[in-house]
Amino acid sequence: MAQKDQLGTILEPRETKIKPPPLYKVLVLNDDFTPMEFVVVVLQKFFDMNRERATQIMLKVHREGMGVCGVFPKDIAATKVDLVVSFARRHQHPLQCVMEET
């Protein structure tokens, strides 16, 4: 709100609540054709995982049908999905990578 005084209008600060942007999970989906070793390479290359962590995620994908590779802002998540899918296609694998809002 503004108040009047002798010199003019004085503005009072107002608290505004800004909500942080939504985050997105990037998921790798299981299929019957992509080699497990290729999935490990993808996780290491695009999600900066060490071999042990990448293997754990790959096994989760294999057993449960999907695994979370990371949580990112929308632009980064979309870029990672595109990079993974393009890389898989270049190597002739049907690996699917998707994102969903957390």
Work out the oligomeric state of the chains in this entry: single chain
Q: What percentage of the residues does DSSP assign to strands (E)?
A: 25-35%
Please list the strands of the largest sheet in the order they lie side by side.
4-3-5
Number of strands: 5
Outline, from the CA principal axes? Answer: elongated
Number of helices: 3
Task: Classify the helix fraction into a percent range.
Answer: 40-55%
Instruction: State the secondary-structure class.
Output: alpha+beta
The chain-level mean pLDDT equals 93
Over all CA atoms, what is the radius of gyration?
22 Å
Main beta sheet, described? 3 strands, antiparallel
- Uncertain parts: none
Annotate the secondary structure layout.
Blueprint: E1 2-4, E2 9-11, E3 23-29, H1 36-47, H2 51-64, E4 66-73, H3 74-90, E5 96-101
Antiparallel strand pairs: 1-2, 3-4, 3-5
Helix pairs in contact: 1-2
Descriptive notes:
The chain has 102 residues and is an alpha+beta fold. It has helices spanning 36-47, 51-64, 74-90, and strands at residues 2-4, 9-11, 23-29, 66-73, 96-101. The chain has 3 helices and 5 strands; from the N terminus they run E-E-E-H-H-E-H-E. A 3-stranded antiparallel beta sheet has the order 4-3-5. Strands 1-2 form a two-stranded antiparallel ribbon. Helix 1 (36-47) packs across helix 2 (51-64). It is elongated. The relative contact order is 0.24. The mean pLDDT is 93.
